[in-house]
Amino acid sequence: MSARSLTTIRLAVAFFILGILLGTSAAISVDRNGYEFTVAISEDAMDMADDQRLPFLEALKATLTSTSRMLLDATDNMLYFQKVNILVPSSWISILSGAQVTATSKHNYLNADMRIETTKNVNEAQSLIQPARSYNSKMCGQPGEYIIAPPQFFLDVNGATVAKYGDKAKVILHEFAHYRYGVHDEHGIPETFSDLGAKFPYTYLNPRGEWQLTGSNDSKIEGSYKNATGGDCTYPNTSDAPGADLRCRFIPDMTATTGPSSSLMFMPFLPTVSKFSDENNHDRAAPNKQNYWCRNRSTKTVITKNPDFSNLSPLASNTPTTPQFSYLVRASQAVYIVLDTSNHTLADNTVFNNIKTVIAQNMIPRLAALSPRSFVGIATMGGSTVTSNGRLGGYLTEIQSPVLVSENQQILVNKVTALTRSAGQGLLLEKAILDVGDILTEFTHLSGSIALLVKLNDITGEQQMNVECEATHLLNSRSARLVTFEFGSNNVLVRSTLMSGGTHFPADSTNYQSVFSSAIDKTLELTRESRYQNRRIQLVRDQFTTLASKPFRGFYTVDFLDSVIELHFFVPVSRTGDYEISVNNTDGTTYTLLSSEHKQLYLSWDRKYKVHTFQLSPLANGVTATYSVSTSGAEMTGYVEAIEVLGNNVPVHVGGGGQAQTRVVEVEVYTSGNNGVLNMAAVNEDTSFLVYASVRKGYTAVRALKSAVAMIHGPTGNTENISLRDDGLYPDLLERDGIYSGFYRPPTIPSNGNYRISVRLDGFRRNDPLAPFNPPSSRSMPIDQTEDPSFTEGGSTTSFQRWYPYIKNLQVQAANFYEEKPLRIMDFMIDYVNSVNDNVTFKWTAPQNSYGKNDSVASYRLAYSSYPSDIIDDKGSIPTSAVLVKDSDIVGGTLTPAKPYETQTVTVRMQRVGPSPPTIYFTINSNSTTGFQSYTAPMVYLTGSEPPPITTTTVPSTVTTTRTSTVASTVQTSSTSTQSPTTTSSSATATPTTVTKTTSTTMVPSDAQRIGVSFFFNSFFSLFLILTFAL
C-alpha cells in the first residue's frame, strides 16, 4: 500500500463561557493523506430526547463516512477523513455503554471543526431543521472558523433533510470546502438579476448575449422554471419584463440519469455532481462569490494551492475511507496551583515545607478521587526578574503544564515534593497573575478554571505596577476564579480575588495550617460543582478625566435583569472631599458615596488609587444606566470598570445557535494566516495581518456597532489600535454581516514574533448619556433580553460594551517577504458602449496605494483578451504576456491614477471586426509606488459570439464589430438559459449549457428543487437572505 499522510484538523465540541469565545485556531499537520476531524456537541443538544441521541450519533457517523469517500473522489484521491473525534456532553456517557470515552482538554469548542447545536423558532416549541453551514470571514484560500449544524439535519426524520437540502454528505462536503479551503459559492442569489445591479445575481447576460442562471457546471442540466406552487413561470431578464416572476426558480430534473459532474459549489444536490470546477469547465464570467473574491479562478485551482496538498501523492481509488471514530468528553476544569518560592520577608522554610507537603499528600490525591477529569498544573513564582517565558507576565516558572489528574497523580506529587525555595528576593504578583490568565486561556471552554495562588511573602515593585484591573479582567475573560492563600498581614489579594468571584484566605504563623486546609477544601468544593461557571462579564474599563466645569459621564449596560452590576471607580489617594460619584440604577434611582450600596475598602496594588465600589441589582426592564464623576477642585483623572455578574437563572449556552432573546452576546476573534501562524513568505493568498471579530447573539448578527477596535500588542512592547469595520470594504468581505474586520501594518519590517490582540466593542451609545437615544441603525440587534422583540425592523435602544483582553495570538514569520499590495479594485465595470464610434467606457473607484494611506497608486494595467486565461492566471494576477490597452487606444478619460476613492473613467477604442465578433474580457490592476501589483479586479466583458478557435492569433488593439452588448457587473458565464423552454445550443468552448424542459404535471417541487442552490451560503447574512427569499 502506498504511503499515506495524515492532516490533523483539531475539531471539538465544548461549552460557551461568559459570551467570550476565544478564537483558537484549528491545528493542522500533514501526515498521511487523512484529516483528523473533531465534532463538538453543545449543551443545546442535551435537550434532545434520550431515544434520539444514539440514532443521531449513528447518523452523524454515517454521514461523515460518506463525506470521507466523496472528499477523496473530489480531491482526485488526495485527502479523506482518517479519524473523527466526537466530543459528547458528559450526560451522554451513560448511553455509550461499552464504548471508550476519553477525557480531553485539547479538543474543545474553540477549535472545533464542526459544532452541533439545536435551532429553535421563537414561535414553535420544536427545533427546526436547518442546513449545515460554515463560517469563513477570511480572504480567498484561507481556512475559516468552523462548520455548524443542528442534530435534526443528520437525523433526517421522514427524509425531511434530504427532501430539503439533498444528500447530507454532499452538504457537509460543500461546507467543508468553504471551511478548510476558503472557496466560495458559484451560484447567485434568488430574486436578483444583473439589470438590478446585484453583485451576485440569480441570472445575468452571459458573454454570448444570452440570459443565464449564475453557476458553474460542465454539461447541461435538465429542468424547468417553476413558481412556489409548481406552475410554469419566467424569471425576469429586465426590470420591466412582462409576466416575469422574481420568485421563479429553475427546478433541475432530479430523476435525470445524466448530468454535470461539477460543481460541488454550484448545485451539490444534483445526483451526478461529484467534483469541484476546474479551469477546463469553470464559468469564469458568472457574477458569483467565487469569481468575485477568488479573482475568477476555479474552486479546484484555489483548493489545490492549499498547504494540505503539499508533497502529497494520490492514493489508490479503492483506498478504504471509513474514518476511525472516537468519543471524547470534556475535562471537568483546570486547577492551577501557583506556589510562592521566594525567600524573603515572611514565611520560613517550615511554613513552605508544610504547605508543599499538604499539596502533595492531601490536595492532589483528593482531586484525583473527587474530580478525576480535572486537569492539574503546577507553577512557581518568586524573584524580581521578568524572564522570557513567552507568557504575558514573563514571570512564572511552569513546573507542570495542566495534565489529567487521574492519569498523572504520582507525577504531580513528585513535582510538588521536589520544589525548593530558590527563587531569590522579590515577588511580582501582578506579573504572576497575568501568566496564570494566559496559561488558562486554552482551558476557557471548560466549566470554570480555578487558580490556587499561595502567597508567602510581600510583593515588591509596587510603584511599577498597574492598577490590578488588567490581571483580574484577564481571569474573568478566561472564566477563571482565584482562590488565594495569603500569609502575613499585608493582604493585597483581597480585592483581586473577590473581583474574579473567588475566595481569599488570610493567615499568619499561628493559624496557617488550618487556614490552608480551608483553602484546599474550597478549591475541591468548586471542582465538585458540575455546572460551575464563572459567570462574570467584563463590560468595560475606561480612563476618566473630570473638571469642575465638566463632569465625566458614562454608561453601563445590563444584559439580563437576573444579574448584579459591579462598578469600581479608581480615584487618586491624594483626593479627599472635593469629588462626588453618582450612579443611576436602571429604574432611575440614584446612588452616591453616602449610599449603602457603596463601599470603599481597598487600595490598588500600586497604592496610588483608592477604589470606590458600587454593587447594584437591576430593578427595571431598561438596560442602560448612567454614572457621573464630578469635582469641585482641580482636574482629576482615574479609572472606571464595570462587571456584570450573571444570576443563576440566566441560561449560558454554547454560542452560535438559538434565539437572541435567550442568549448573551458572543464574540469570536480570528486572524489571517493558518493555525495561528502568518508566514508572509509561504502563504499563497493575501499575506496581510488581518483581524476579524464576529459578534452574534444566538443566530442573530450584530449589524451595527458604534465602534469596534482591536488593540495590537507587538513583540517589542509596542501597542497600536486599529479600527474594525463591517462595511464590505477590504478587508471586510460582506457589509453588515456581524463580522468586523481590520488591517494591521507592523511598525517595522522585519517584525517577526508573537502578536497579541485585545478587542473593545462599543454599541449604540448616546452622544450625551442624558439625551434621548437615536440608534444608528434601523436594523440593529437588541442586546437585552426583553426589549425590541421585532429587532429586525425596529432597531434597538440599548447600548453595549465589551472588553476582551489578549483574546488572540498571531505568530508572524518571514515578515521581510511581505508585499503590501495596493487595494484591489472591486467595482470595475463597463459604464457605456458607443457602438457607432466603437468605443467602450470603463469606470472604477481609484484605490489606495496601500491600506490606510490616501496616496495614489503609480499606474494601472488594463488587460483584455478573447480568453479569460490570457488576462488572469492561476494566481489571480495579470500575466506579463497579457495584451494591455495602450495610450493610443484611449479616446477619453485617462489611465493616470486619481486620488483614492475618486471615481475614474477611461474610454477606449475597441473595435471588433467581422459579422460574428468575439467576446472580449477585461480586467484591471494597479502598481504601487513601491513596485507591487494589486490583485486583479473581477472581470467584465463585451458580449459576442463564440470565442475564436485556439489557432487564432492574439487579439490586436483594434478590431471591428457591429454589435456591442454589455454587462456592467462582475463576470462569469452561467449555465442555464433563463428563457424557458428554449434550448441553448452546445458551446465549442468550456462555457457549459443547459437544456430546459417543461414538465407534464403540476406537482409542487420539493424544497431542495424549488430553492435550488440557495441554501449553500457560507455567510450567515447570505443564508438569512436566501431563507427570506425562499420562504
From TrEMBL:
Residues covered by region (Disordered): 770-794, 961-999
Domain of life per record: Eukaryota
InterPro entries xrefs: CLCA_N (IPR013642)
Domain named Calcium-activated chloride channel N-terminal: residues: 29-315
Keywords in alphabetical order: Membrane, Signal, Transmembrane, Transmembrane helix
Regions that span the bilayer: 1011-1030
Signal peptide: 1-27
Pfam name, any one: CLCA
Name the UniProt record assigns to this protein: Calcium-activated chloride channel N-terminal domain-containing protein
Organism, as annotated: Daphnia magna
